[in-house]
From TrEMBL, chain A:
PANTHER family: TRAFFICKING PROTEIN PARTICLE COMPLEX SUBUNIT 2. The gene is LOC111152951. The keyword Amino-acid biosynthesis does not apply. Transmembrane segments: none annotated. It holds the Pfam family Sedlin_N. GO terms for biological process: endoplasmic reticulum to Golgi vesicle-mediated transport. Keywords: Cytoplasm, Endoplasmic reticulum, ER-Golgi transport, Golgi apparatus, Transport. InterPro entries: Longin-like_dom_sf, Sedlin, TRAPPC2L. It comes from Enhydra lutris kenyoni (northern sea otter). CDD domains: TRAPPC2L. One of its GO terms (cellular component) is Golgi apparatus. The keyword Transport applies. This is Trafficking protein particle complex subunit 2-like protein. Its main location: cytoplasm.
From TrEMBL, chain B:
Keywords: Calcium, Coiled coil, Metal-binding. It comes from Mustela putorius furo. Residues 445-456 have a biased composition (Pro residues). Residues 222-231 have a biased composition (Low complexity). It comes from the Eukaryota. Pfam families: EH. The gene is REPS2. CDD domains: EH. Residues 302-337 form the EF-hand domain. One of its GO terms (molecular function) is calcium ion binding. GO terms for cellular component: cytoplasm; plasma membrane. This is RalBP1-associated Eps domain-containing protein 2 isoform X4. Residues 425-439 have a biased composition (Basic and acidic residues). SUPFAM superfamilies: EF-hand. GO terms for biological process: endocytosis; endosomal transport.
């Protein structure tokens, strides 16, 4: 269960960002922003390697005291960043991967919509509902 | 009557109303009062108001009406205050009348003062009004001015249009959609050809509508008396269904027969959707690509987020393309949205592709018949084809005459003719053409239909194209026919461009053949072939051939002209495109949150 989910465009501006409302949203926005550096680092670490060889799932970007940040990059350099609570130890890598896969597939559905211009904010309700399903449910 | 209005309530200054004003205001008041569920409905307007306090107009409907007068909010506030409604807390007849008078004053440019109402004033004008009478009193020119600018709005009778507009506007205000984006301003609204079709099917069952739509009820009632007009419109409705994709509101509009199920597609609507689909994509069993659909649906003037949401709902398999059922669902949702229905949270079961495919197998059968054709109207519109085709030949018709290229079995001969004509030789005579391969090209759109309809075969050899065309046009001169033409043209513009060129030669060629064939009866078979004619060496044939050659030359000249025009247009479009791309580039990096 993520605490914050963000979709960042290739040019490093956010297309979609959503946090669990309990905490200070600004903190999450900041964490996502700083994680972009790590993502870029990981991408460029491949360097000369072909893009195909690079795996889409980047894994744990960096841990903080309370949260862990995971990253995922698509082939078109769109980044998905997910922040999860550190206390949620039951969350396994596989689950994170599957969450990213779902994100990616919803994102492609959004792309398929001809009325969506790449670079716009994502306002699709289907995407919203999918993200809600993977966010921490706040009662 | 005037005294009654003035003396009914002493809270306002004495109000002097002319006959017309009195009638108008009282009608308006009746509507507003009738819309109010709470207040007792006033009796016949002309009856004196014995108990003004008991008759009030609903504040909401009154507010809508005032907004419809298109005065700034400040002015409306002033008016409301002045007329005394604020003071007494309700809109009694006196207050209402005073308010209307003040509105008229404001619209005439007078300051909003009590003194203004003492003058002689024209009737207040409401762009979106609940009453037909209001619009009629109002300025028709205003309404139709903007309409005329709309490229693919079809020519309609005035009241027809007005009713559409007013109803459309009317619904917009009471019906709040959960989505943030209301449709564009009133003048941009286009007609409601669709809804008129629906009105035929729809009965008064709309009365049962849920709360948001009860505001429409006063509409329905006034529509009753004025329904003489709608009643006479069924034939036009049929045509209007096939008209341009302008989905405006209409009093009886709804997207369905059943008020409880606005998401059910009726047979008529289904037909319309299928026709539209065919106009975009000739093969009914394949897809419409995303960009094509986007261009098409953007014409509905809904906002992009709404369209995006509608697409999301209807593209079930999320493949970026619309199959026929998906397209119907999307179209239906757009129609519903235009008519004021809020968009559903999820795709209703009656709009699911499987359901649609199962529920309407018949259109598929039709589809197979017309598969080879680029566009087809129902077969019963064959008589219209001729008209449409003729419209093609009219140079000043900026629209592209794709619809004329309709496919009926009779038109196959024209396809052949088109091909031949393109070779710029007047060849086989018509009978021969007909006998040749029937359903040749789906790409080639059928030129003018058979000769029999041609009115004046006896025109002189020197009859120019222009002459012939008007003659042809006169033949099936039905106003309704022009609408199908126009309606389809907006959509079919891109594909029709190359085809139009073919039409011209066909038209001219056919006409060439026409006189030739009629003049040289026995030699008609050989008229086309110069070689044959030469061989036969009949003076009549020679003459016929020469005429034909002359006609062809004319056709060539016309075509050349057309070509240059189109080239010019192409250039302009290219420039536009470049400009837009530049804009896009500039805006792109700035698209940050």
């Amino acid at each position: 269960m993520a605490v914050c989910v963000a979709v960042i465009a290739k040019e490093n501006y956010p297309l979609y960002i959503r946090s669990s409302p309990t905490e200070n949203e600004l903190k999450f926005h900041y964490m996502v922003h700083t994680s972009l550096d790590v993502v870029d680092e990981k991408i460029s670490a491949m360097g000369k390697a072909l893009v195909d060889q690079r795996e889409l799932y980047l894994g744990l970007l960096y841990p903080t005291e309370d949260h862990k940040v995971y990253g995922y990059v698509t082939n078109s350099k769109v980044k998905f960043v997910m922040v999860v609570d550190s206390s949620n130890t039951a969350l396994r890598d596989n689950e994170i991967r599957s969450m990213f896969r779902k994100l990616h597939s919803s994102y492609t559905d959004v792309m398929c919509n001809p009325f969506y211009n790449p670079g716009d904010r994502i306002q699709s309700r289907a995407f919203d509902s999918m993200v809600t399903s993977m966010m921490v449910q706040v009662c | 009557m005037e005294a009654a209005a003035g003396g009914g309530c002493g809270s306002g200054p004495p109000l002097l109303l002319s006959e017309g004003e009195q009638q108008c205001y009282s009608e308006l008041f009746a509507r507003c009062a009738g819309a109010a569920g709470g207040g007792p409905v006033s009796g016949p307007p002309e009856a004196g108001r014995a108990v003004p306090g008991a008759v009030t107009a609903a504040a909401g409907t009154v507010a809508d009406l005032f907004r419809a007068s298109q005065l700034p909010a400040e002015t409306l506030h002033q008016i409301t205050e002045l007329c005394g409604a604020k003071r007494v807390g309700y809109f009694g007849p006196t207050q209402f009348y005073i308010a209307l008078k003040l509105i008229a004053a404001a619209q005439s440019g007078l300051p909003v003062r009590i003194e203004s109402i003492k003058c002689e004033l024209p009737l207040p004008r409401f762009m979106m009004s609940k009453t037909d009478a209001e619009i009629r009193f109002g300025n028709p020119a205003e309404l139709h001015g903007p309409k005329a600018q709309i490229p693919y709005s079809v020519t309609e009778k005035n009241t027809f249009k007005r009713m559409d507009d007013e109803d459309k506007q009317e619904t917009q205000s009471p019906t709040m959609s959960p989505l943030a984006s209301p449709p564009s301003s009133p003048p941009h609204y286009q007609r409601v050809p669709l809804s008129h079709g629906y009105s035929k099917l729809r009965s008064s069952t709309e009365q049962m509508h849920p709360a948001p739509y009860e505001a429409r009820q006063p509409l329905v009632q006034p529509e009753g008396p004025s329904s003489g007009a709608p009643g006479a419109k069924p034939p036009r409705h049929q045509a209007s269904l096939i008209r341009s994709f302008s989905v405006e509101r209409e009093p009886h509009d709804n997207s369905s027969n059943y008020p409880e199920e606005p998401w059910r597609i009726t047979e008529e609507q289904r037909e319309y959707y299928i026709n539209q689909f065919r106009s975009l994509q000739p093969d009914p069993s394949s897809f419409i690509s995303g960009s094509v659909a986007k261009n098409f649906f953007t014409k509905s003037k809904l906002s992009i987020p709404e369209l995006s949401y509608i697409w999301e709902l209807s593209d079930a398999d999320c493949d970026g393309a619309l199959t026929l059922p998906e397209f119907c669902a999307a179209f239906h949702l757009i129609v519903a949205r235009k008519n004021g229905y809020p968009l559903p949270e999820g795709l209703p079961p009656t709009l699911q592709p499987e359901y649609l495919q199962a529920a309407f197998p018949k259109p598929k059968r039709e589809c197979t018949l017309f598969d080879s054709y680029s566009e087809s109207m129902p077969a019963n519109q064959q008589p219209r084809d001729l008209n449409r085709m003729e419209k093609l030949s009219i140079k000043d018709m900026a629209d592209f005459p794709v619809p004329a290229q309709d496919v009926t079995s009779d038109d196959k001969q024209e396809q052949n003719k088109a091909r031949l004509a393109l070779k710029s030789t007047v060849d086989e005579a018509l009978p021969k053409d007909m006998s040749e391969d029937p359903a040749t090209k789906s790409g080639l759109l059928p030129p003018p239909p058979a000769l029999p309809p041609r009115p004046c075969p006896s025109q002189s050899e020197q009859a120019s194209e222009a002459e012939i065309h008007p003659q042809l046009n006169r033949a099936p001169s039905q106003a309704a026919d022009s609408s199908p033409t126009k309606k389809d043209t907006p959509y079919s513009q891109p594909p029709s461009k190359p085809i139009r060129r073919k039409f011209r030669p066909e038209n001219s060629a056919t006409e060439n053949q026409e006189p030739s064939s009629t003049v040289g009866g026995p030699a008609s078979a050989a008229t086309g072939k110069p070689h044959t004619a030469v061989q036969k060496q009949s003076s009549k044939q020679k003459k016929a051939i020469q005429t034909a050659i002359r006609k062809n030359k004319e056709a060539n000249a016309v075509l050349a002209r057309l070509n240059s025009e189109l080239q010019q247009q192409l250039k302009e479009v290219h420039q536009e495109r470049i400009a837009l791309e530049n804009q896009l580039e500039q805006l792109r990096p700035v698209t940050v949150l």
